[in-house]
UniProtKB/TrEMBL annotation, chains A, B, C, D:
It comes from the Bacteria. Pathway: Amino-acid biosynthesis; ergothioneine biosynthesis. Keywords: Iron, Oxidoreductase. Residues 10-147 form the DinB-like domain. The gene is egtB. InterPro entries: CTDL_fold, DinB-like, DinB/YfiT-like, EgtB, Sulfatase_Mod_Factor_Kinase, SUMF_dom, SUMF_sf. Signal peptide: none annotated. This is Ergothioneine biosynthesis protein EgtB. Residues 186-423 form the Sulfatase-modifying factor enzyme-like domain.
């Protein structure tokens, strides 16, 4: 990749983060309503820290950080780098102020562009390529945090009884949705995992063989209306529908519906990035945990897909998904909430909700993480989490690909996570 | 009290809160590092809520609040009014924004001044006096929250590894302090409790007789240097010096010194409202719990005073305390941290640190709280807390009086709470 | 006190513990349903440990313990002696077995009697008297644990859905009870605290002057029927009746009535040491916390007595209380549950329920604990607890005296704690 | 299966439970030192409850239980049956007494044998077979609880500072162990899952195809000595060796070695069912969590096997494992603790320690649980747990088979769980 190309991509990614923060009030930047929901200001600083830590400090002799404590404050979980400010206390960092964080970003952007300008002329090509690879990783990393920005601020604003909105707008409730249809796929020995020369994360490798049985996949995601029928049928009161740990979670957390659902004054509402909205029946249900997705599937007499099944189907239709294209061009409102499925072919692989699979997140056969602290990126999380596939309305479209492995704990609900069924 | 007088006092108190907030960054206004440490913005709104709830809503026909939910959001603990936003989540209210809260204050100030303008002409004098009494209570209430503003923001800023300061300045470490001296007082049947026609809180009443034995009282507070000797002598490792609940707290919280003390890089530091400072030996130790005060006294072979003893002495010297006078005229720096005792007469009753007594907070014989929700002000807290007497460097001087009963749980440390000994 | 006298008292006390354990199943001896409710086997061993630790080890040269680890296992809270087995894990000590504990008791009894036989002939009379004083303390200590035996096993058996009874029998529900009557007492400067030459605990000293206002005291305790009226009037749903910490406890613990009350199948039941019984309206309400006692008093428009008031009245009527006499002679059934008040004079000072006072437990002026570890007996608990006065149906009658200060946290309910009103 | 055969197997299994309880003190039967470690008495009752609930109540008209509350008290987790006594409070059931539980067992045994006597003559053969199938399931279920009996009582006795032993005996530390050797296996499309006409659990079905890569498997388990080298190399202080959740567990639980390891007085000890013993270097390390197994493997530069790999190897050598044969004939001492591996061929598949795999416990493709409450046996636990394969020294030998899927949470350590490596 040329210097120009990588620098352009770097600049565009960095600028996009500032753009998506625009609608916030200054007071929102420090908001953290749960340990998992980092403040916008922290995301802005941490993504900057990533470039500083893995590019500038090792590759720029004499590089000076603006503040040595940032190394601790904005380290997320890299034990190889050193101590970390406690995750649940990120919202207590009223300082550095937002202006200080903007200055930090500028300082690092400037140094990064200077560094990238040296790439073409480097004699040590291996180092030059390492430098490019890390920069690309930093860009992809920042894109991931841009998605987290949306889900974290949605969660944190949703904890305020005033239900402030992130942006003006309305959910698009006008699209009619047809009943779900099923497509059959033959089983056999297939290959999954990334293959190609563009970027992928280490957990998408190596490409390898796996055996699947024949199966059918639903053409679209489960809707709010369908999920309401599950609730109305006592879904949250019937232990036989749930995994044991899921049922314990339902009891402990007193769940009675998806996160962000709210019944108030006789109205069925949903908190969205555009504030409280009527729940539209045809829109995909979002913000369900893996346990809820699994219980819904059991209630419906079917099951969740495996990640191999999902990838197998997605790989065949790669590039053809309407929602993916739409989401790339969409205006802000479309970006902020899933839309209903319009047609009867395979829909909503990307651009609506992440789709829980029944597959526990574990290493592919032969998986090897990178050397050093950067190797903590994915590998160490390979226990107790479930794989989600696809992408959501707030996923940067450039990250939508068949092999991408997202992962969360089965009790997590603050992502735009939904349900696609298999049988 | 005339309309002019009460209005002036109202305006002065309201303006003082804005003035003491001036040094903050906007991001600091929402900061809450513990359940007990409310954000500045919340204090600004809650003190406003008090006037709205107890004056405007009952006395101004047709009064319109800016936002009906403020009734819940800014209710501290008045069950008689209704529900309360959870105390530990005050820091999650990024909205209303600070501008919104300023608008709320202006809205209420305007309505209050209009209401107060009606007082002189009211035919129903009982109502007029109730109105004045509640306004005075609201003013005293706001003064209390101005003290909490200082101790809460000190606690919350102190949770940031950058240790940001509230204002510039330095601790005054130049005053020489003489060894403690003791004054003897005769016991007998005395009277305590408020007597007079100015304001007092309900818990200072009724004035009543109580019997005390003869005793001696220390002329000044325990200093940092003296407290360091207690630590150096193993004070925090010797259970025999502690109350059982205190020792359990030391173990559970891993206490090894007062809150805000910090040993770093070979230096003995103290976090102050002026940032990290060298600990000055002659300055009174502050931010100790009742348990620590009690353990120190036991180590020193003496004890804490009772509240009756303290008040008995303070009443005799009322109006004569040098620190009290000083603190009224003091510049900001003096306001922000206790100073060393200068002389050998009775010192530091007010203006340095609150002084733990050994007396559990309970009603005076014949105590009767006010009717209605406003009666929740003091009475319902009369269990499990200890009485502190005097006043601190951040106490509004107008609240320094011999009969004032402050109270906190014996494990609380975030106030400017210190130690005066008796024997 | 002569050797014979002290030895006799020692033997009688030790034997009584074995006698009151008789009705248990072997499996009950290890039962601990909460951290505060120690198993019978532990009480049997700990009271033995007390004699071993404070008498045998210091006064018998060459004394050999059966097992050195008992020093840790059966130490309750004496930091001056050394480490303690965690309080909440006493129920996990299946070994030593009950037979081992009986052997431990016999071993210590034998050594104690040998030691006591030396008292009369000792030349060092100071040591001889210290030896007697400690033995008396050990006897009183064991009597206290005999009371705890009853309340602890009642609590632990009550956690079993089978509600097993400790002994056969029935509550005496036949005594008619007259409405409460009030007696007036003049205020003034009085004296409280132990005065005499028999035994008292250190916390009953020194006798000292205190001033009380005139007051009235109820002649009997609040009954189940009267307490039911409080519940029926919404007592547990009205925060204005409660101290703030009490209300928080009601919410957190979901209290809706006294401990051991049970409404089942349309019946109003009460778990007693004789199993589930109908709740009799005339019997004193027991197993209420200090918070509940205080809330009941507020609902009734009166208040709890102070400990000085209670002692002042009790001292005047000392020796005249009918219940006290009754309880000494009572058969097992009477011993196991309070009975209704029979007359209209002052009733139930002892022998029914401990009576919550509004007084926080704190040292009397001039209080000085004993030297050494034995000084941990009372003094270190003088914070956060409330004083109860009188005695209950399971209190050894020898401990019923006007000056006895019992103390528990205001949330504690597992003692036979009831309510006497004052105004 | 004939009536005689099934009755014999029933009786033998029931009697074995009484036999293995023999060494206990009566007080040990109620012991529960953690929520997961049920008391022996509860195991004895619950296994009885299983036959009563799934055989006697549905198949024996007019069957009378001894006590209707046993349905709740001894229900482990079957929501389809009804409520359950809280798991963590099983140790609080001092009643029913052990004698009562023995009577319960006899009552149910008698009724079961009468029921089984009817099988041969039943006209409804489908019902007869269901009856046999459930009885077999009940027998296998009781065998599983016999294994839990050993690990639970070991855990509970190990919480006692006296470290009481279950039986007399000594660990066999005399067997020399050769360095580990590796055997290579070809990858390919294989089949796993139970195939045959004897008993298997539902989670071993259906037999299905899966694809594995070529791999090597260690011939024996990791030893105490090898694991000590991991500790000595800082294994518990190096986060890079651990999964993120594992590292968090190490920090939270302050782990520094396997459960039941104890360094005391300069000695390296291990608590065993025969009391405290010297740790023998050649004996397999036991009582490690999945996280520790995984970290050890990473430190050793290899990995844990998948369950498919393990089963593939075990299926080839089925019936040939020396340890399996040994364990069947072994005396008590061998039964109570793993022994060292003697040879260089494939060792210790069974009879020493369960072996953690890297495979998350999830349903085989096409898995279908039984209908009704009995279907809760395995399926609902298929999240967040890891598969272990093989069997331990306390596993009933009849349950040792290549397809058996054991499962525990990766943080669990109280089973005899060890480490076999793959690469």
């Amino acid at each position: 990749m040329s210097t120009d190309s990588i620098s352009d991509r770097f600049v565009a990614t960095r600028q996009r983060f500032l753009a998506i923060c625009q609608p916030l009030e200054l007071e929102d930047y420090g908001l953290q309503a749960a340990e998992f929901a980092s403040p916008p200001k922290w995301h802005l600083a941490h993504t900057t820290w990533f470039f500083e830590t893995f590019l500038l400090k090792p590759f720029v002799p004499g590089y000076q950080s603006l503040e040595s404590l940032y190394e601790v404050l904005f380290n997320s979980y890299y034990n190889g780098i050193g101590n970390q400010h406690p995750r649940g206390q990120r919202g207590l960092l009223s300082r550095p102020s937002l202006q200080d964080v903007f200055a930090y970003r500028e300082h690092v952007d400037h140094a990064m562009l200077s560094l990238l300008a040296t790439v073409d002329d480097r004699e040590d090509r291996q180092e030059a390529e390492e430098l490019i690879a890390r920069t690309v990783l930093g860009i992809e990393h920042e894109r991931q945090h841009q998605e987290l920005f949306f889900t974290d601020i949605k969660f944190s604003l949703g904890a305020n009884p005033l239900y402030p909105r992130y942006v003006a707008g309305d959910v698009n409730a006008q699209i009619p949705t047809a009943p779900v249809s099923w497509t059959a796929f033959d089983g056999g020995l297939i290959e999954i995992g990334y293959e190609g020369s563009d970027f992928c994360f280490d957990n998408e490798l190596p490409r390898h063989r796996t055996y699947i049985e024949s199966f059918e996949l639903a053409n679209r995601l489960v809707t709010n209306g369908e999920y309401q029928a599950f609730i109305d049928d006592g879904g949250y009161e019937r232990p036989e529908l749930w995994l044991a740990d899921g049922w314990a979670t339902v009891q402990r957390e007193k769940w009675g519906g998806p996160l962000h659902w709210l019944d108030s004054g006789g109205q069925q509402l949903e908190f969205t990035l555009m504030g409280l909205q009527q729940r539209a029946a045809a829109i995909p249900v979002a913000h369900v945990s893996g346990y809820e997705a699994d219980a819904y599937a059991r209630w419906a007499g079917v099951r969740l897909p495996t990640e191999a099944e999902w990838e197998h189907v997605a790989a065949m239709s790669y590039g053809l998904d309407r929602n993916q294209a739409t989401s790339q061009d969409s205006a802000r409102a479309a970006l902020c909430h899933p839309e209903a499925a319009a047609g009867e072919d395979l829909q909503q692989l990307y651009g609506a909700c992440w789709q829980w699979t029944q597959t526990a997140y574990s290493p592919y056969p032969g998986f090897a993480p990178s050397a050093g602290a950067i190797g903590e990126y994915n590998g160490k999380f390979m226990s107790n989490q479930w794989v989600l596939r696809g992408g959501s309305c707030v996923t940067p479209p450039s990250q939508a690909r068949p092999t991408y492995r997202n992962f969360f704990y089965p009790q997590d609900r603050w992502q735009f996570s939904g349900i696609r069924l298999a049988r």
